[in-house]
Write a structure and sequence with these properties.
Elements (H helix, E strand, L loop, with lengths): L3 E6 L3 H12 L1 H8 L3 E7 L14 E3 L2 H5 L6 E4 L7 H10 L3 E4 L2 H18 L3 E2 L10 H8 L5 E7 L2 H13 L3 H10 L8 H4 L2 H15 L9 E2 L7 H9 L2 E12 L2 E12 L11 E8 L3 E8 L3 H18 L30 E11 L4 H11 L4 E6 L7 E12 H12 L9 E5 L6
Parallel strand pairs: 1-2, 1-4, 2-3, 4-5, 5-6, 8-10, 10-16
Antiparallel strand pairs: 7-9, 7-11, 9-10, 11-12, 13-15, 13-16, 14-15
Helix pairs in contact: 1-12, 4-5, 5-10, 7-8, 13-14
The protein binds NADPH dihydro-nicotinamide-adenine-dinucleotide phosphate and L-homoserine (HSE).
The site of L-homoserine (HSE) has 11 residues, from helix 7.
């Protein structure tokens, strides 16, 4: 059979990784697909960067030349960002070309229009590489768990921030040093603020929630907090209480809607997720028939992400001649069977909590704090107060039983208004991740 002809937009970490894996494993891939996957055209802003790669393909500095190339059957978009990536993808779809993309930011913000256009045109938009690098989590949720009703998923889904947390709190590095190394290793986004402020994880959990629950892609309503506010003392106190702090993306289906959130989270130190270090990712899925299942692997970097891009290319090559109605739906559920479950505001979320309160070292402070919590029926599970006789203020760390976040926020506002409380209260959520 004739080769499948591939055009690549972007030849950075992921683009070059994709070419490398396609070349290295060409024989195995052809044995699987039954035809060759051949890169015929690539676009990069600065073609001089590709000298020495030995790529036997046309090279353009204009990405439109790839999309308009009649010799290209499948467009791989690994350039990133919103524009011109969105216009290029839409043009490729309109031209009847299948698309493979690693661009979670684009899909999380424009997925509904992209998938609708692809559905109407009968082409595939495959995005395994957009979530959790090498881990085949999209395939696992969309196909492997297709017989299940999925209740919730929780994951470490940003390799850069997990790498930074690991290096800071296990190796003693400072934040900037760890971020610079994550950038050098090719883990970070072009804008690393997306990694450390939680946006990248939010893009990914938004996509996973959509295929897990059959809801439209709705990034605008995802709650996002990053890792910048964390201090080493929080990690130490969390450890004393038996927890590790990880940046988690969480999507939970409830009777009245869906919780969709990204934030630093205390999880029991003995839990498997607590021991996921460096650029590794892991996603825990709870579903009714399978129970809990855990997916672990490299979440970022050239070859790991290329593994997912090439798997998508194999899928596309295998099914490009099939009737579109017989293909797996883009978002796992039939487009006319999507659910209208609302995304819930954070005030409606229920969780256990960790509070760090800095207060003047005066008698009666603890009693005041406990009374305020009690007025909202929030009970204290554990307390750590460090004796620092010379200091004017002391950190009081509380672990709270499950409560409604809206109630806790009201109690915190009242604590912060106390003259003895000297800085904003840090509030972190605590998840047991227990089955059931
Ligand atoms: P890089 O910055 O390493 O590479 C981007 C590439 O796109 C570069 O070759 C750049 O050209 C090219 N490019 C950007 N804009 C244009 C344009 N207008 N015209 C032509 N070429 C352009 O990014 P990554 O490879 O790291 O990431 C690519 C995508 O993959 C992003 O969406 C990212 O979120 C996603 N991703 C990345 C992962 C990773 O571990 N790095 C993992 C999973 C997903 P030039 O080199 O000349 O600047
Ligand atoms: N910047 C992303 C991360 C790349 O660190 O996880 C993988 O999506």
């Amino acid at each position: 059979m004739a080769p499948v002809r591939i055009g690549i937009l972007g030849m950075g970490t992921v683009g070059q990784g994709t070419v490398r894996v396609l070349e290295r494993n060409a024989e195995e891939i052809t044995r699987r697909v039954g035809r060759e996957l051949r890169v015929v055209h690539a676009a990069v802003r600065n073609p001089a960067r590709l000298e020495g790669l030995g790529l036997d393909a046309r090279i353009s500095s204009d990405p439109w030349a790839v999309v308009r190339d009649p010799e290209v059957d499948v467009v791989v978009e690994v350039m990133g960002g919103q524009e011109p990536a969105l216009s290029l993808l839409m043009a490729a779809i309109a031209a009847g070309k299948h698309v493979v993309t690693a661009n979670k930011a684009l899909l999380a913000e424009h997925g509904n229009e992209i998938f609708a256009a692809a559905q109407a045109r009968g082409v595939m938009v495959a995005f395994e590489a957009a979530v959790a690098g090498a881990i085949p989590i999209i395939k696992a949720i969309r196909e492997g768990l297709a017989g299940n009703r999925i209740q919730w998923l929780a994951g470490i889904i940003n390799g850069t921030s997990n790498y930074i947390l690991s290096q800071m709190f296990r190796e003693g590095w400072d934040f900037q040093q760890a971020l610079a190394e994550a950038q050098r290793l090719g883990y970070a986004e072009a804008d690393p603020g997306l990694d450390v402020d939680g946006g990248d994880a939010a893009h990914k959990i938004t996509l996973m929630a959509s295929i897990a629950f059959g809801i439209p892609v709705d990034f605008a309503h995802c709650h996002v907090e990053g890792i910048r506010a964390l201090e080493r003392t929080d990690v130490v106190y969390a450890a004393e209480l038996g927890y590790r702090i990880k940046l988690l993306g969480i999507a939970r289906r409830r009777a009245d809607g869906v919780e969709l959130r990204v934030h630093p989270t205390l999880i029991p130190h003995s839990h498997l997720l607590a021991n996921v270090e460096g650029p590794f990712n892991a996603i825990l899925v709870e579903s009714d028939a399978a129970g809990q299942s855990l997916y672990y692997g490299r979440g970022a970097g050239g070859d790991p992400t290329a593994s997912a891009v090439v798997a998508d290319l194999v899928d596309v090559a295998r099914t490009m001649t099939a009737d579109p109605s017989n293909r797996v739906p883009h978002l796992a559920f039939q487009p006319d069977a999507m659910s209208a479950l609302p995304l819930l505001p954070m005030a409606e979320v229920e969780s256990a909590y960790y509070l760090r309160i800095h207060a003047h070292n005066r008698a009666g402070v603890l009693a005041q704090v406990a009374t305020m919590l009690a007025e909202y029926e929030i009970s204290i599970e554990a307390l750590v107060q460090k004796e620092t006789p010379e200091a004017d203020s002391v950190p009081i760390v509380l672990l709270l039983h499950r409560c409604r976040e809206g109630d806790l926020e009201q109690a915190i506002a009242r604590m912060e208004a106390l003259p003895v409380v000297v800085q904003p209260v840090l509030r972190l959520r605590v998840e047991s991740l227990a089955e059931g």
